[in-house]
Amino acid sequence: MCVWIMLVHQGMFRTECRDGHFWLTVGSGFLGRMFRFDTEGRSGVHTVSDQRAAICGYTMLLDSWGNLVLRASYLACDVDTRVGSRDLMVWFVNKEANDEETSYPFLLTCPLQQWSPREIMCEENYMEVKGIDLEVISITIFYRYQWTLFKVDASVACNKGTMDGTYILWSIPQILPPLVQGPVRNQGARMGVGGRLLSACLIQQRGYKMEVRDGVVEVRIPFGAVGGQIKSHVMAGRYSQSYSVDLFYVQQWGDAQWTLTRHRSFRPLWTTPSPHSPRLVNLTVPEEGDFSVTLGVFPPDVSLANVTIATLTVPLAGAEELGLRVTQVPFPNGTHAYLLQVPFPHPLVSQKVQEHPCGKYRRYTLAVTFTLLISPHREVFTHSASVVCDLQDVVLPRVEGRCTDKTMKLTLHRGNMDTQWAIFFGNHRLEPDLVEFGGYSLEAADDYFTVEVPLYSLGMAYEDLSLQGLLANVAVSVLDVETGAVEQTFIQRCTFHVRELMVCLPNSWMVVVVDTARVVPPLDPRDIALLDPSCRPKEMDRTRALFSFSLDSCGTIQGVNLVYVNEVRYMPRYLPIPQPFFHPFYYYRQPLGCRYPLNGTRTLAIYQSRLWPLSRTRPSQHNPFVRAERG
Question: Which of 68, 165, 215, 500 is 20 to 30 A from residue 305's alpha carbon, by CA?
Fold first, then answer.
């Protein structure tokens, strides 16, 4: 067999010699708005119209990929027979959008082949014989008699294919009565595709079947088998596929009149489109740390346009910049699949902590939608999937704390699920507003951040007040943002040294620390008392005294709007009792007061001293305490 290929636009044109036919294929990407074939013979140049093709032995068709195929018999019109070869001059004419025509000449040359005494070639049209749907067509029978080639008109039968489960079924009578004279000597049948006969071994490898049942030859070709072509479609929004194959069938027999008759059939068989859901294969290996999934398998007319992960649509060109890997995986039979790889820690991957009897584990979820296009009309279809992988790799947040002179410094190690958790300081969630209005100081690093909480700030709780200091704490809670469950609680306690402080407790109790060293001249703490002289300090050191008393004792006076007033006074232990509360001279006085909201005494309030010096001989005319927090 001789094959001659044009060098002009190499790859767009292919010419071959196949079993008594010239084949010329033009690539789909080269076809213009309109196109045609012309042939040139002794009588001139002729356009290969449908009518001329049927009369002169030409077949024109578009295969499943949109390629234009011209098949011409060696005995077609305009074929020039020479010594040892046959020639056909063909012009492919392309008409562009501007109506300009461009012609491409091809001189097709194939060697002479050995002919049988009678050759029959089957083409189209329709009839019925012996209960089998058949097509009757006009054919030319070529036969050799005493070294002379003759041609006569005859009839031959060719039927269409049907679907039989997952197979394309094509049937033909083993004996064609109009073509048989007398006893028949069957010399076998062979099959092939695309004009090429196949060996028995190759037929078996591809899953083809050819059997004789009740005098009928049945040819079965599996859907999608090698040798055929799969075409993609979108039907009612669903991805669908059809399958076509160019069957080549050859049958030979002898009878009383002809020693050998060879009957050849070229039968294009195809199926109607049927839904074919793409298959997503999860190739994820948890130890490798990323999702790995493939989607396929697709014929060459399908291409991936983009992927949508979570809510973000990513074009293929920008996938790598976002830390995603999308690659096409080719297969030897011309099909392909698409491989998507996404790291587990990627922001587009959902993470959620789950409970398990053996401990906590992290569930990674990849929600992805593939958007694909079908050539050449760019039909669009999508395929969505959700892939889950569980790993016991949860590292919970960890909190550490330490005390400074006037603050608590807390370090929060993020763990590996910081987006899963909400951090609370007391009843207050750690948010920008809390940092701003609470006076917090925040420093962040890659895997931890540090929060410095002032003593009298939101989130601080107070446990005890003594001359050793103010015992305060901050309770840091880690909550699951989805369930609200408290996963971890850390309490940092610190004792802060205070010189003067007044605390109004929610149980109608007042605790006060006063500093007598600021009085000029200094007072002995043992010489001070409340309005009730019997209410002396509970604790004392050289310069400070602590009072703790109920608001209904120690001479406390209740004013309007739940205001309770008392006073620390100079009350020498060995002198007469001084004059009443409003005595204007000589005696040291430190006013005290608690104000509660109208809903009752259920609020804690802490007051700091303004720290200006006091005199023994001049009573204070101002309130020396400023509220620091109400909680």
Answer: 68
